Amino acid sequence: MLLRFRVTNHASLRQEQELSLIAERPRDGRVERAVPRGDHQAVAVAGIFGPNASGKSNVINAMVWMRAAVAHSFAHWAPSGGVPRRPFALDRDAGVPSTFVVDVVIDGVAYEYGFSCDDREFTEEWLYSYPEGRRRKLFERTAGEPPEFGRSLTGGVRTMARLTRPNSLFLSVAAAQNHDLLGRIHHWFDRCFRSATDHDLADRLRFTADHYLSGAAAGEPIMQLLRYADFGIGELMLAEAELELEAEHRLLERALRQAMGERAVRVESDPTDRVRLEHRTEEGSFVLGLAEESSGTRTWAGLLGPVFFTLAHGTLLCVDELDARLHPNLTDALVGLFQSPDVNVNGAQLVFSTHEPALLGHNTRTELGRDQIWLTEKGADGATALFPLSDFQVRDSSENKEKRYLVGRYGAVPFFDERILESIVAALRGGSGDGTTTEGAGPGREEVA
Description:
- GO terms for molecular function: ATP binding; ATP hydrolysis activity.
- InterPro entries: ATPase_AAA_core, P-loop_NTPase.
- This is ATP-binding protein.
- Keywords: ATP-binding, Nucleotide-binding.
- Helices cover 31% and strands 23% of the residues.
- The chain has two domains: 2-192 and 314-406, P-loop containing nucleotide triphosphate hydrolases (Rossmann fold, 3-Layer(aba) Sandwich), CATH 3.40.50.300; 218-294, no CATH class.
- α5 packs across α6 (219-228) and α5 (201-213) packs across α9.
- The protein has helices at residues 56-72, 157-163, 170-176, 180-191, 201-213, 219-228, 240-260, 271-274, 295-313, 328-339, 401-406, 418-428, and strands at residues 2-8, 17-20, 32-34, 41-43, 45-49, 98-106, 109-117, 122-130, 136-142, 148-149, 193-196, 233-238, 275-281, 284-289, 316-319, 349-354, 373-378, 384-388.
- The protein has twelve helices and 18 strands.
- By secondary structure, it is of the alpha+beta class.
- The termini are far apart.
- The protein is globular and about 70 Å long.
């Protein structure tokens, strides 16, 4: 489980910002998991709220970027390609490193893993464990110096260090060399951390279709989740021609792996072309292609596989703009799957960004505690500040958090400059923009109702 995530100098996140899933205090009615060898509980849900361009999506993006660096830096980044980071752009000093850190629990042990990088290389990387509640160094790496290894970390790590390029992570190299312990840390990033953004919809649709159509145990629950949204859909299927094409792709993938190894490029088709949804009405059954469905249906279909996988395995799902193209009640219901102890029996976690203030109100099926609500706003320097609602004196049970949020009591809401609006109205009336009317402006001189 994820305990904390910290990031510095990524996109609008200029100074260090921290997202914590540590509960402020235990609370009945929601999923919480005990932190090993500690007195704390970790929550299952954290929502990030804020106005447009406040940086809430950048928090999700920073988490996804860290995952990508761990998963791909050794296997897929070009040796001379540097580090494709996204530093804060409104800073004259482009050489400031970017830093990413997670505190996670894996197999009952807490770990802190992090790294810093500039445009050329990883300048630092470290991993600590807390098996007895006290920090134990596993490794520390600084650019230009040999790595330092703790006494408990064995298994050819010095040989692996020689294989590590300046722009690859040692953790990625060790996992590729099948190191047992480091491979488990890598596995958390690669397999136990999924994301849902606008950029990976096709991958999510493919993931959903593959799991449903494989005949595995996930098939029926995925179908039930599709029906749960009440879109009038009775079945998910592949077009017959696409089934044959899918089989050809499998054969081609197998041949490529035999010839080139496991790193061969995957042969993929566009899931929006092959997936079909059956609608059952009083007039009978009708099959539509995914491209013919509403954007809300496509969004929900793309979430089904990741949502079920995360709930089934007790892993982490990060969703950017959870409310986009979904009804507020459906967004509320989705959050409720993770918040409910009756449903989320494996302790899965959901981190999401949203514009939807209704999730803060009393009329939701799923009430978020103040330690689960995070806010973003930008300062005069264009940098994002991330802070929890627990920074304010708010009573979870009686406070109308939605109303207070919308009127700006917690910040993190848009600011509307009424002087700009007056200038726009003057222009619409044919004025000069300074509140005066220009002669001869024709119909624009008339009063606007």
